[in-house]
Amino acid sequence: MELNIRNLTVGLLAVIILYLVLNLLPIAVQGRTADPPWPTYHHDAQRTGRTTIFGPTTNSLRWQFSTNSLISSSPAVGADTLTGTGGAIYFGAWDGKLYALNLDGDLRWTYQTESYISSSPAIGSDGTVYFGSYDKKVYAVYPDGTLRWAFPTGNFVTSSPVLASDGTVYVGSWDFNLYAIHPAGTQKWAFSTGSYVSSSPALAADGTIYVGSWDH
What we know:
The protein is α+β, with helices and mostly antiparallel strands. It has one helix spanning 2-29; strands at 76-77, 89-92, 97-101, 107-112, 122-123, 129-132, 137-141, 147-152, 162-163, 169-172, 177-181, 187-192, 202-203, 209-210. It has a four-stranded antiparallel sheet, with no helix packed on it. Strands 5-6-7-8 form a four-stranded antiparallel sheet, with no helix packed on it. Strands 9-10-11-12 form a four-stranded antiparallel sheet, with no helix packed on it. The radius of gyration is 22 Å and the shape is globular.
């Protein structure tokens, strides 16, 4: 009798644990994204430009999308979110807009800045998109196209941001500075070089930031 009660208790405990896992796990992951296939300029924080994904085997055009101006920003590709909103392609154009396209090439939304965008976007773990503009600001835009924050610098931002695992945003500006920006959009620190910083920073595994400047 004692053995049966013990087995029943263990069985009930297993059912309770399974119930909690199945019901609380979706809450825990809500709003998070799977790993994006190409989340930043040159793929990753080390700027390796390498991926395990195979490219096209033919030169057949799948689709094309026209903007109102030239494009020098490199696209970032987001993953399908666990909430089911689907992946997106993000890039800037010289009409001052950040574009978000569906994977089939249809326009999802645009976000208008005050000047050209040549900075290449970086996608955060929560789907936030970070990029710079010639209007001298660094932007963080939510996956739905609404503004999270805008960080002012002293000159053009053509550098492409890199994101650390703690959410810190590193990016250069033509005001000679390399900026470290908190995830909430406030300045953590700035390092002044001798000239413009249009180079896109690279983040090493030990936390060192490497960046170039026009000061030679």
